[in-house]
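Reading a protein record of the kind used here takes only a little practice. The record below shows the convention in full.

——
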Amino acid sequence: MKILKFGGKSLANGKGIRAVIDIIEEKVKKGERIAVVLSARGNSTDELEEILEKAVNNESYQEQLDAFKKYQTADFFGIDFSQEFDTLDKLFEGVSLLGDYSKRIKDQVLSQGEVISAKLITHILKEKNINAHFADSRSLIVTDAQFGDALPLDKLSKENVVSHFEKYNGTTVNVVTGFIASNTKNETTTLGRNGSNYTASLLANYLDAEELQNFTHVNGIYTANPDLVPNAKKIEKLSFTEANELAYFGANILHAKTIIPLIEKNIPLRILNTFDHKNEGTLITSEVNEKGIKSLSVLENVALVNLEGRGLLGKVGVDARIFKALAHKNINVSIISQGSSERGIGFVVEADQAQEAKTILEQEFESDFYKRDVSGITIEKEVSVISIIGQDLSNFHKPYNALIKNQVVPLLFNNTVTGKNVSLVVRKKQLHRALNVIHGEIFEISKKINIAIFGHGLVGGTLVDQILKSAEQIEKRKKINLNIFAVANSRKALLDKNGVSEQWESDIVEKGVSYTIDDIIQYADEHHLENLIAIDNTASQCFTGSYVRLVEHGFDLVSSNKVANTLSFDFYKKLRVSLEENQKQYLYETNVGAGLPLIDTIKLLHLSGENITRIKGVFSGSLSYLFNTFSVEDRPFSQVLQEAIDKGFTEPDPREDLCGNDVGRKLLILARELDLSNEFEDVVIHNLIPEQLRAGEAKGFLEKLSELDEVFQKIKEDQKADHVLRYIGDLWGDLSQEKGNLDVKLVSVPQSSALGQVKGSDSIFEIYTESYGDQPIVIQGAGAGAAVTARGVFGDVLRLAEKG
């Protein structure tokens, strides 16, 4: 014989009921001997509890009760539930009049859901000429008198079950109510929430069933709840031991007591999907999986109770007093953690028992409060427990570090001494994100990196396209899933938690919404997005004011915008403090040298203790092209400048390049990498624009370019032989002091020197150190261009993704 158990969602009106009947009918046609155990239909149990609470609080409940009755009879004819409905009417009326109810009354109320469910299925099967028999488990399962969570008396219960199935055997399909039973006085009791699973396993045990098939709304046991973790994977096989761990730590398909009766008789348990007949589900047997199994289980309806007091330090028997007092009132403690320096103990209880637990402990430690040995007993209500089944401490640092990186700090931590299970208590609002972060780490699936890109001009737009084009290959090679959930300009943001498409440019016009930084933060929070990176491709000083707020809300930063690193030194330090406090990173390799590995090299040298004595070079790709060309070609300066403008090497108003401020900012960034506290005002800049041309509109300046020719031709002619002009940044002096010397200037250098041999729009940097002496470290390459800069930003993103 096989025992089939159907859950509430399987028995919901419509598709659910039809699927259940089809499954039973198919098995009967195949000649299989089966018994069916049923839960209450849909959300019936929750609804009955809600109506009960309304009745006890003297609130109007009749409308909800009528809706409950209507749902139970909808589309079904010839079935009589008058007895069950009358019972409910009388019970609710009595509770409303008394303003109170006992656990005994509650069991009587809740039992009606299972009775209605079993009667309905029996009725429908009979209409289909299937020999079905309604079996009220209150006449089969005998329990103790503990209402709400009764324990079966096995000997009496087995006798009843065996006797019943001997009488109703052969082709009879016994349809049995789950969850409910009765004590020796024939009073209705219940087996606790999810107790229908327990009823099914008890029947399987008593009848020596060949298999228990538990039909649910999912395809089996998963590595995590697929409703919370989309990437969760189905587990094909489990051992009873592993299933028992999952059940204990909250896997809602299993009941903690369900496994034991099956282990005793070595009866396989198969978890199946009512709505997917082809799926073979998860098979649970005594066979041990040598590789072990990992899964995430969640306890949601819990609270964290904390008891603290310095005066309890070193006192013997404190723990015993706590647990004895709670046990006396049948309050179960699931997760425990203790502190030592300031004596404290935290433990997890059912949410609806938390206030009672606090009251009990306040009474138990009343004298200790008076002596000030106990300082307080508090309750954290909005918490959940995540248990990682199969996780030992040897590699727990990976998921733990990932949680911290995503600003999920566990409130309590616990691990089993002999097993491989770790439990964490987290705030309920962080549960979804925490589960996804942990799941990604322990199962080594693609790590999802959620990216918000601000600014989609030449660099930003190129970056979006580069990421979208490369994402598939990066996921295959690196197991990193780059997901651009936001693209924003100064006016609109395109938001999509699943990632923007290749049509993002038209989408931002059609679907973009006005936004603030808080809107982006809230969107990421509402959709539980993990591993957040904000990329600043603007040139806006205003936007840099949002950096600290982004960091505080879990974003790492990547920036091609140089402004943040050249604002006041106070802001510079404030940002670094925030990054450290929130354990976030800020990468900006493209701030100097576009895609060249300059900043990383300087950071590494400085961190290793190398004494950097000087940094100089050609910092601007635009001015590199301008003076490289002008120095070797016999053409007027204005003509070469116009060519640079036409090729897009300069800004639309070339004075932004010629004034030297851009080079000055880059030089200041490098100075600050050496922990120098220079301000932008310390940079001595040789402005290449003659005084009379610095004011006015760009158009007027462009019309007067020829006025530059005489000035620069004279500078060119006054050089020594075989020398060329270069516009450089130079950081020098005693760089071990608080500040260094920063010069931006036009110089003449030998054509044979490293600076003199630069071609095109390349940048070049010479890094002088104490160890290398007169021979500098030279870094040279393309120092400008949207594609090069975007690729550099892309590199920073990948560095963050791999480090995380």
About this structure: The mean pLDDT is 91. The chain is about 40% helix and 20% strand. The CA atoms of residues 27 and 342 lie 62 Å apart. The longest strand covers residues 295-308.
